[in-house]
Amino acid sequence: MCQEQPNISLTARLKVKDCAQILQMSKRSVQRYITAGKLKAHLVGNSYRVFGRDLIIFWRAN
Fold this sequence. Notes:
By secondary structure, the chain is of the alpha+beta class.
């Protein structure tokens, strides 16, 4: 996981692949955190979106 706090907009709606790139982890790991309820995400169609503020909250908790 990245060492510095991600520099993203709090209202950004990020795809799983974008979250994985920001956090420096695999897309599958991000999906596991989402399904486990550790990373808050919203289902849009058949894919997840994560608000920037939720990604920062997740990053701070880990």
